[in-house]
């Protein structure tokens, strides 16, 4: 079957960014300049023009931005996103008969008959060709004038008059039948005509693509996880017990205790305080210290065994405090310039009210019991999984969604979601979409330590950030390969990493054996490889490194099962380094986004080097509002190709950071870095300044090869590059 | 909004092959085993099963092929295509509760309480766990029996009975409460249950993907182009005039003259004889020898200046013969085991009947004239282009389509389409689709010497084969890069190259200066790099190498503008080499497809080495017919996972060819090839036989490093590899 309009000759293919063929939105962040590219071409030799159309999903009007030809049929343009939530973009392109005519006329003029020329091609141009071309141009100007004149608006009416006058002068010129013609148009004439293109046969991309825009915190965030149960001061800070870091299980920490720590956490430079589940902890099969299944009566249990007679996911563990206490903590967190992240774990202690109220949400065995959860080889005897194949799945989905809504309504906007990969992908897509409709500022961090396809699929279905394999990537080659994958398209178009050197579940072998140097090294990698990172503290800053047994990643005396006391005044604490790193992150925009990450070769496998850079504030994009549907139907004539937006010149990057880390926690390592100067905006043979932000020391570096030495104590350089004046 | 069924937990992503997000069909060839892959996974730890569903588009039933897990959530299966035309395929996948249960039971049995064990984990399995698991298994077998029993067919009823009996025995076993259980199922029991999977919550891929299957000639073809006008015997073959290859313009060649040459062309091994346009040639602005615009009255003109008072695209140039003569030539071509390809050029001489009958199909200038065609810097004063922006475009499309139909109706099935990139892409999509509906065996070769995006877009819109940049790729690095691109996905999924070392339009500089060695070298590259190639003869085999002027790719005395006489008996003709190469291509399946092309490093940039291999006849794919819609709605229970299809073992390739070519036409070159042994199916340290099919000489090669010397006269090896017994 023929298309409705077979004369739309321009083809628009392979629009980027595009995730899963447009099934999922690409993700960007507030304030981003969204670079869009496509292959755009038509048959034959006619010139083509294209414009990017973009809008916030609910806006009636499209923003039109002229696209620039990059060569070989690739076109690009950018638009800025100034609101969070769903955006739409598409591309419109058309044959530019006016520009085709200009180029054709220029060719004919250049080939005007020269009877004296020995080249026959210079003698045989039919004499009527140029006057004919001028007459054709006059018609084009007349048509352009009609399009301008269709509007009754003052300036357009004046344009129409001016266009008609150009048409008339071209006709006059044609009548003269001159022997030698000059090009008859001024740049102003051409620009005026270009403001009223003929869109009647414009092609529109075959789909509108979606973009989801998150707020800044989704891109750049520093998370601090702590167990509130362990925040009760063991004694006065200056008393010996505290200094010796003795466990003192006499009092369960409360929201009020956490509140007292807020200034200290904020001073370290964190912006998200993340608490493990704060809900009532079940009694049945409650775990004791070190994951014991035969604990004493005073066992505190795991916060992830959610639900008891005191309530479920919308209740608070009485030992932590009340809703009033929670509200105070939330307000105080905000007052300290941070946000509070809650841990949402969709699973139930056997005592959870859902178990009796909604037996259909659980899978009962022939003897009436429910099989506890397993994440092989881990066993969670104190936890029942939910059965998403329940025939009552609609009610289950609604209830789970309402858990998020409950805490959103209390003012929480950041959620760390426990094991999302054990709940259906379709559930997350619906749940997050639905929550985002009213709360586009909600952030969801997926704790999806699972296979790559599942991890990525969760991101495509709406999770804002994700835990990563960083925790297990310790060799240079595997760090480079992994970060090349996750910070470049297609993955970076939908996946935002959040790096954790440790979690309550994962004490990696490198930390167990590498001493303080390993903690420093992993911290520096986490804070500089990605714009979002987190630590499970105070275990991290105090370099807690004892596993429950050799070969295990579980902590000895894991805080998951008992109260710990931490000596936050330990002089060996990494808190000063953390504070410095967070300061460096805040003052260097280069470290606040992942997309510019670039690895530089070093001739020593124990040394890794990478740079990140942030562009100078970009020029405003030349674009204009066009009326809604009319723009796309081709009845609109406001597709003016104003000054095109051009991707930033790497030489003009405002902030460039170069990080070099010694991956060996035991020995000094040295080597030559082979800098990719183009990436750094440094010229060949140039001498430039590098300031180590960790020490304040300046060095003068020269050209691409530079030498570094790093010891286990001075484990890294974080250089800020500055071109010498 | 929630999905209609939220319990379909399996996700199917990134199905391959998929062209342009499924907008265009992937292309395969008759008899191909179509490898399909996808990422398939579900939440949690349940096992997953998947099947590939495929069918010829009009079949009511789907063919179901069980998919195999390749690891990391990648799954694959293949189906064979035994009909040309449109096929559909999709994937269905579901949670395999039965297999999940088997694995769970095995784990529990392995962990049975061992009271003597020092490991507490070996002592604490609750005693009821295994009997409970057995009871759950009994229920699964009962459910499976119900699905089998739903059919009244004899064998299924027997299966249901057997399944019920297994369920009963599991219950009995559970009741025994044994101290130590053995795994209770036989492989036969498991296979029986697996024949009746529960598809009620199966997921179906979000789209059905299209596949276009062409006949063999679309994949593997050897084209010979000649100008019928130049086929009149100048004199008796044994007379001096013929031997001296003197032009003798006394008689215009005819279809009957071409007929006489057919045995000779067939004997060279060609299977497609391609003729430039055979339609009446216009008189207006007719071109003379060497593209002269001021020819004498006897000028023959260009066959691409189509149309005169004698007719247009559905007429025959009277000097060539009549329709009866054409029909005889067509029949004789077939009788000689070849097909006839016509050149379809949608453009008109000013004398073409369309110019007066359909003035709306042309763009008239203000003075009433029509601008002639240009393909800068070339000028075609004798040709008018069609105006596809005509308001009468529907009639124009219909008429153009009818040109193909006219010749299809006379028995032609192969078309070389001139400059398709100067006609709208949407036109081709419609035209080829529409022609293919009734004539799926029609082959369209795109003469699209244009930019890559346009060239590829024509292939996506239906062109079977395409001319390529091969003609201009002469350096090793550029040959390797180009062929890596066009013989691997994504490009190879829609684009089939046809290599031409020369055409009437292109006498490449390398042929002008490289002498006979250059012709040999380019011929060997064309015949072995791609399964489809063509030459413009006899210019090629007679090593015609004079350009019209230095720096031009146009032939002196181009046959486009005048009759040439060729001495087909020239003892220097490359015809014997062509014959040998076509023979090698016919007897070695490795050279009949492009997808296995693999380059091997040589330590000399003047030597290029590459291999191709064809698998042994593949095992039949285990698959079965399932009823149409029911299969997809999940009411069908015939998704038996029979023996899975596994991609071929490279060691078992039936035919492997290794080509080494000296790219230097002037000097001997030698070097060490570093063979990729895995690709060749050769073991490390193995000695194997290589037979040069050009000379018949055998060599014993050993391991990966082997030495070659090639001179300008013995310009290549075409080795057939055989493992020693």
Task: Give a structural overview.
2 copies of one chain form a homodimer. By secondary structure, chain A is of the alpha+beta class. Chain A is built from 17 helices and 28 strands. In chain A, strands 2, 4, 5, 8, 9, 10 and 22 form a 7-stranded mixed β-sheet that branches. Chain A has a 7-stranded parallel β-sheet with strand order 18-17-16-13-12-11-19. In chain A, strand 25 (687-692) and strand 26 form a beta hairpin. Chain A is elongated and about 110 Å long. The termini of chain A are far apart. The interface between A and B is large, with 60 and 60 residues.
Secondary-structure map with pairings?
The structure is a homodimer of 725-residue chains.
Chain A lengths: L9 E7 L9 E4 L3 E10 L5 E9 L5 E5 L1 E4 L2 E7 L4 E11 L1 H14 L18 H21 L4 H23 L10 H8 L8 E2 L4 E6 L1 H4 L1 E5 L14 H4 L11 H14 L3 E4 L47 H13 L3 E6 L8 H5 L15 E3 L2 E3 L12 H17 L4 E5 L6 H14 L4 E5 L4 H9 L4 E2 L9 H11 L22 H21 L2 E5 L38 H13 L10 E3 L6 E9 L8 E3 L1 H6 L19 E10 L6 E6 L2 H4 L6 E6 L5 E5 L2 E6 L5 E8 L2
Parallel strand pairs in A: 2-10, 11-12, 11-19, 12-13, 13-16, 16-17, 17-18
Antiparallel strand pairs in A: 1-3, 3-7, 4-5, 4-8, 5-22, 6-7, 8-9, 8-10, 14-15, 20-21, 21-23, 23-28, 24-27, 25-26, 25-28
Helix pairs in contact in A: 1-2, 2-3, 7-8, 10-11, 14-15
């Amino acid at each position: 079957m023929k298309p409705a309009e077979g004369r739309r000759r321009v083809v628009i293919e392979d629009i980027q960014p595009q995730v899963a063929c447009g099934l999922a939105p690409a993700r960007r962040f507030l304030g981003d300049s969204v670079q869009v590219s496509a292959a755009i071409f038509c048959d034959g030799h006619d010139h083509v023009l294209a414009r990017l159309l973009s809008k916030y999903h609910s806006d009636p009007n499209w923003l039109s931005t002229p696209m620039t030809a990059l060569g070989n049929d690739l076109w690009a343009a950018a638009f800025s996103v100034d609101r969070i939530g769903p955006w739409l973009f598409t591309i419109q392109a058309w044959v530019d008969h006016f520009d085709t005519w200009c180029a054709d006329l220029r060719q004919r003029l250049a080939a005007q008959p020269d009877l004296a020329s020995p080249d026959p091609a210079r003698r045989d141009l039919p004499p009527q060709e140029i006057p004919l071309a001028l007459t054709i141009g006059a018609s084009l100007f007349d048509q352009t004038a009609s399009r301008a004149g269709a509007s009754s608006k003052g300036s357009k009416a004046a344009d129409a008059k001016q266009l008609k006058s150009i048409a008339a002068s071209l006709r006059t010129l044609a009548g003269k039948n001159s022997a030698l013609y000059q090009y008859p148009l001024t740049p102003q004439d051409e620009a005026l005509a270009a403001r009223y293109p003929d869109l009647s046969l414009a092609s529109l991309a075959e789909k509108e693509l979606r973009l989801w825009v998150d707020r800044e915190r989704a891109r750049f965030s520093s998370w601090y996880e702590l167990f509130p149960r362990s925040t009760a001061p063991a004694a006065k800070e200056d008393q010996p017990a505290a200094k010796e870091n003795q466990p003192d299980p006499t009092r369960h920490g409360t929201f009020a205790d956490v509140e007292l720590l807020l200034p200290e956490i904020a001073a370290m430079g964190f912006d998200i305080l993340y608490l493990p589940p704060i809900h009532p902890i079940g009694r049945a099969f409650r775990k004791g210290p070190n994951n014991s299944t035969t604990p004493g009566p005073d066992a505190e249990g795991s916060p992830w065994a959610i639900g008891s007679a005191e309530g479920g996911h919308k209740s608070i563990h009485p030992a932590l405090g009340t809703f009033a206490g929670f509200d105070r903590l939330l307000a105080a967190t905000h007052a300290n310039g941070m946000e509070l992240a809650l841990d949402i774990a969709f699973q139930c202690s056997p005592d959870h009210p859902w178990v009796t109220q909604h037996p259909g949400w659980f899978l009962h065995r022939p003897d009436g019991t429910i099989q506890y959860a397993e994440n092989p080889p881990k066993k969670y005897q104190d936890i029942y999984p939910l059965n998403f194949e329940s025939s009552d799945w609609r009610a289950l989905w609604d209830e789970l969604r309402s858990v998020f809504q409950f805490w959103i309504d209390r003012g929480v906007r950041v959620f760390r979601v426990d094991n999302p990969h054990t709940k259906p992908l379709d559930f997350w897509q619906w749940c997050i979409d639905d929550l985002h409709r009213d709360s586009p500022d909600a952030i969801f961090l997926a704790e999806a330590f699972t296979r790559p396809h599942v991890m990525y699929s969760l991101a495509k279905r709406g999770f804002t950030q994700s835990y990563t394999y960083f925790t297990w990537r310790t060799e240079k080659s595997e760090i480079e390969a992994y970060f090349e994958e996750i910070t470049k398209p297609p993955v970076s178009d939908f996946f935002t990493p959040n790096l954790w050197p440790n979690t309550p579940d994962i004490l990696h072998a490198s930390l167990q054996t590498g001493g303080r140097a390993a903690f420093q090294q992993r911290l520096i990698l986490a804070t500089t490889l990605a714009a979002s990172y987190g630590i499970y503290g105070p275990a991290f800053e105090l370099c807690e490194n004892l596993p429950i047994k050799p070969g295990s990643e579980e902590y000895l005396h894991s805080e998951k099962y008992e109260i710990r006391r931490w000596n936050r005044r330990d002089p060996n604490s990494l808190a000063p380094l953390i504070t410095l790193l967070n300061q460096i992150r805040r003052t260097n925009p280069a470290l606040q986004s992942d997309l510019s990450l670039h690895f530089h070769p070093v001739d020593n496998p124990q040394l890794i080097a990478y740079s990140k850079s942030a562009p100078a504030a970009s020029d405003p994009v030349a674009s204009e509002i066009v009326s809604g549907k009319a723009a796309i139907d081709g009845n609109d004539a406001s597709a003016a190709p104003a000054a095109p937006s051009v991707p930033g010149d790497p030489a003009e990057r405002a902030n460039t950071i170069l990080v070099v880390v010694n991956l060996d926690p035991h020995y000094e390592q040295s080597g030559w870095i082979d800098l990719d100067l183009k990436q750094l905006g440094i010229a060949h043979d140039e001498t430039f300044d590098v300031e180590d932000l960790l020490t304040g020391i300046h060095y003068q570096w020269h050209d691409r090869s530079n030498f570094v030495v790093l010891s286990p104590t001075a484990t890294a350089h974080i250089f800020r590059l500055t071109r010498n004046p």
